[in-house]
Amino acid sequence: MKFVTFSGPPSSGKTSVILKVIECLKNEESKFGVIKFDCLTTYDDLLYKKAGIEVMVGLSGNLCPDHFYISNIDNCIRNGVKKGLELLISESAGLCNRCSPHIKDILAVCVIDSLSGVNTPKKIGPMLKYADIIVITKVDIVSQAEREVFTFMVKEANNKAKIIYVNGLTGQGAYELSLNIKKAKSIENLEGEKLRFTMPSALCSYCLGETIIGEDFQTGNTKKINFDEIKSSRNNQAKYSFNRNTQDLKAEDTTINSISILGGHDKSGNKENIELTINVGEVICIVGPTGSGKSRLLEDIECMANGDTPTGRVVKVCGDNLKDNKLVAQLSQNMNFVMDVSVEEFIVMHAQSRNVLELENITSKIIKFANELAGEKFSRDTPITSLSGGQSRALMIADTAFLSVSPIVLIDEIENAGVDRGRALELLVKEGKIVFVSTHDPILALLGDKRIVIKNGAINKVVKTSPKERDNLKIMKLIDNKMLELRNALRGGKLIDWDMEEYFHGRN
User: Fold this and answer.
1) Any bridge partners for residue 136, and if so which?
2) How far, CA to CA in Å, does 297 sit from each of 151, 169, 255, 333, 411?
3) Which residues share a beta bridge with 135?
4) Which domains are seen in the chain, by residue range?
5) Fewest CB within a 10 Å sphere: which of 101, 174, 241, 294?
6) pLDDT score, position 244
7) What is the pLDDT of residue 275?
8) CA atoms of 155 and 147, how far apart (whole Å)
């Protein structure tokens, strides 16, 4: 029987990830089991039972959950073998960050979510530091830039582990994780095996049931704070452990020649008869009704789908040094930030995570162009969490244009951001990248070289922008400029009480 340990902070998404992985592995004859360890109670066993998974539950009560885990796990293995399970996964809450359930020569997975804070990877301890695979969840909720900074901090804590992004709702990334689970070691018991890291030293009087506070009641293994030895982030040179003087070498630039999309199927299961190749320098717009599947196509490209997404599409890239850098830069509809840092600090952190030199120069350039795109300017000292939706999108557009070496750029509905979308697109495409734009805006749609029409979750047709459409685009831009003037007038507190017919149809 194969055995894998899953651990991670509470509410990081461990159960959802495990369910999606087993869904990828399962067939009619397979038999999988999960042993869920927790302290007081759990409801996750109901989810496992509903999915047809053999489940066992161990509640530690007033005992340390990780000590309880290691005292019982061998019996759990033997029980799983007795039941004829092909795979047993242990899930532990990791409530004590000093503990670690990882066992030598047993595949160890740590699940951590991207909303937990940039310093969390270093706080978790051996549970993350000694893991073979680190799964990062909830990455769809934050911007790609913040995701990259968080990933960089994970690598700082454990540079040997394989990092996989998994969406616990859609299952994206679960297939890749399942391939690694298949390689897990088969065992019959854990007799004589060793932990990868020692448990905390014990015991003190409070471990044994003492409740009264005071030195007379503190016996056994105790430890006192030395108030003369201050250990605080306030004394660190950099708030988030980055050194501005770091001079890392750049990775060799990634170059691509083309990207190909091989059809999968639509929402009804019908075959998607498409084989589309896009060359470098092209701008491809994606159009279709709300809910038709535009964002899903972008997600397939972002994860380089290999038939492992809900659409069944395959995305292939032709180029050089494809493994040296991240291939895709994405501007999604989610521009949320959770880091408690300023705009300047965030850009510096993102730049260092990409091994970019000349930090002051690149920071100034990004802020300058972001303010040119945004309606309301912001400073480098502005807290990143206080940026408006338009300011956040403007910052990420400039960040992607000047900081990203990714040769493919994905943009999801830029027209909703309150920024100069034409200028934004011009800024992004000038570096000879392949750009995909999901849009409802007719002007943006005609700015592209081609447009992909999505219907019922599949590519229905590909339309090349015609010369006549280019001519009409000029007229549409004139009308759009008029609308921009109206927006600026409203923002400036002016009354819109003039002759609209003359304004739109009169001589310019």
Assistant:
1) 112, 165
2) 24, 17, 22, 14, 11
3) 111, 164
4) 2-181 (3.40.50.300), 255-465 (3.40.50.300)
5) 241
6) 47
7) 93
8) 12
Contact between 19 and 138 under an 8 Å Cβ cutoff? The reply is no
Higher pLDDT, 487 or 81: 81
The token pair that represents 393 in the structure block: 């999108």
Distance of alpha carbon 301 from the chain centroid:
14
Name all contacts of 350-355 with Cβ < 8 Å and 24+ positions apart.
Answer: 350/145, 350/148, 350/149, 350/399, 350/403, 351/403, 352/152, 352/242, 352/246, 352/248, 353/148, 353/149, 353/151, 353/152, 354/148, 354/403, 354/404, 354/405, 355/248, 355/249, 355/250, 355/251
- Coil/strand/helix, residue 151: helix
Q: Which residues contact 461 (CB under 8 A, 6 or more apart)?
A: 452, 453
Report CA Rg, the chain.
Answer: 27
CB atoms within 10 A of CB 415: 15
What is 317-372 written as a DSSP string? EEEESTTTS--EEEE-S--B-----BHHHHHHHHHHHTT-S-HHHHHHHHHHHHHH
Alpha carbon 175 to chain centroid, angstroms:
16
Q: Residue 199 corresponds to which tokens in the numbers above?
A: 């448990």
At position 430, the amino acid (one-letter code) is: K
Q: Which amino acid is at 200?
A: P
486-494 contact pairs (CB < 8 A, 24+)? 491/375
Instruction: Please list the residues that pair with 5 across neighbouring strands.
Output: 90, 108
Q: Which two tokens stand for residue 91?
A: 């899930």
